[in-house]
Design goal:
Number of strands: 16
Structural class: alpha/beta
Distance between the termini: 27 Å
Shape: elongated
CATH topology of one domain: Dihydrodipicolinate Reductase, domain 2
Radius of gyration: 26 Å
Strand order of the largest sheet: 1-2-16-15-14-13-9-12-11-10
Order of helices and strands: HHEEEHEHEHEHEHEHEHHHEEEEEEHEH
């Protein structure tokens, strides 16, 4: 409590209660590297696990406990001193699953408001469908509950502004689940950029391709799902009434009523990681293209999407271009990667490694005189030798460095 007898909801207070204290406030654990030739193993200096007393424990509740919600909850519970006390979902089976995993004493409900009213809940994880993000996030902030909000922040841009306004108004912390902004791989890429490892950045490309039904959002639908165990009316609150359609509930990313399509699900990861590396706030010009090419299952979200983006020069980076792609029918097998190309090299970021390849421009431009007569060619060769005299042998740095994350590394935990 502060001097006004009000809860102290500052980030410093919250982290101290979690046993992290000043180290977490100033960015620890820190990134370190261990060299072996031109290969480097990335790691973090781990904070010692503090002994957590009963009064210091952080009690969390998870709102929206589908696949992503349960994954977020598992990750949060890896942090020392956290305990799950409540879960909310509109599908009864998921609530039963929470009790199977975390115990029968977990409070479960279909109504998120009952969770926000509980005095034993210190913070909430929100992993609902995108169209519910704004309402629940603002309600949680106004209830004084710090929020971890699954990406994207909201379904529509104007909703995001209202969430940000609520955070500023209440002073309650909120973090959005774009975990690449906390990744040791992306931190290393940022350091390499800032150190001039690739010269001057001029182009970035990223893709997130898939070749599976689940990857294309064809999530499993239990045959027993019905309005009796799914709160369909609440799910579609504020929308025109339609009959229960399990596809709309379980495969919600496919529909603009509930999701944000490829951009909100996958472009957001490519953007957020790249923006963290470059310190950028976004492009000034955008061109998009795409279509529904393969998954003709009633969805209204495209399964192939391309984007081209112009970034202006700022204090943190030169002007550059960005190209993004998502293909849900990628016959090459799928995958995700980001490449940052500069005048002297390229940084390639994969799932668990960062590769720096240097390809510096030679000091001399080379000659293209094969089409000239002998006299003119000899004249130019003499000129060239005088203009670009040979220099003594130089010690050349290795042209490739690979930085690998630790085995089993998961950036969601860092985030």
């Amino acid at each position: 409590m502060n001097e006004d007898n009000k809860p102290d909801l500052s980030r410093k207070s919250f982290l101290k209660k979690a046993g992290l204290g000043a180290a977490a406030l100033f960015g620890l654990p820190v990134l370190t590297t261990k060299a072996s030739g031109t290969y480097y193993r990335l790691s973090r200096e781990q904070l010692q696990k503090a002994k957590i007393g009963a009064n210091d424990q952080i009690n969390i509740a998870s709102i929206g406990v589908g696949g992503m919600g349960q994954a977020n909850t598992r990750t949060a519970l890896l942090v020392n001193g956290t305990k799950l006390v409540a879960a909310c979902d509109l599908y009864d089976s998921r609530l039963k699953r929470c009790k199977e995993i975390w115990g029968d004493d977990i409070y479960t409900t279909r109504d998120y408001r009952t969770i926000l009213n509980r005095s034993d809940v210190d913070a909430v994880i929100i992993s609902t469908t995108d169209h519910w993000h704004e309402e629940i996030a603002i309600a949680a902030l106004e209830a004084g509950k710090p929020v971890y909000l699954e990406k994207p922040i909201t379904q529509h841009i104007e909703e995001a502004h209202r969430v940000i306004e609520a955070e500023k108004r209440t002073g309650v912390p909120i973090i959005v689940g774009s975990q690449r902004t906390s990744s040791i791989l992306y931190e290393k890429a940022r350091d390499l950029i800032n150190e001039g490892g690739i010269g001057e950045l001029n182009f970035v490309e990223g893709y997130w391709d898939r070749r599976s039904a689940i990857g294309a959002w064809q999530y499993s639908i239990p045959p027993s799902a019905s309005p009796q165990n799914v709160d369909w009316a609440t799910y579609r609150k504020g929308m025109p009434k339609i009959d229960f359609d399990p596809k709309h509930f379980f495969r919600w990313r496919n529909y603009s009523d509930y999701g944000t399509g490829v951009a909100g699900d996958l472009f957001v990861h490519l953007f957020s990681g790249m923006h963290m590396i470059t310190g950028s706030y976004g492009p000034t010009r955008i061109y998009g293209s795409g279509g529904l090419r393969y998954w003709h299952d009633g969805r209204d979200a495209e399964d192939v999407v391309l984007g081209l983006f112009d970034y202006p020069e700022t204090e943190s980076h030169p002007a550059f271009n960005l190209a993004l792609r998502v293909n849900f029918a990628d016959g090459s097998g799928g995958g995700s990667r980001i490449r940052l190309v500069g005048s002297d090299g390229v940084i390639d970021i994969g799932w668990n490694n960062v590769t720096l390849r240097k390809w510096r421009q030679p000091r001399s431009p080379g000659m293209s005189v094969g089409d000239l007569d002998a006299g003119t060619r000899n004249e130019y060769e003499t000129y060239y030798a005088e203009r670009y005299p040979e220099t003594r042998a130089q010690i050349i740095d290795p042209d490739e460095f690979v930085y690998r994350a630790p085995d089993g590394y998961d950036d969601r935990y860092d985030h």
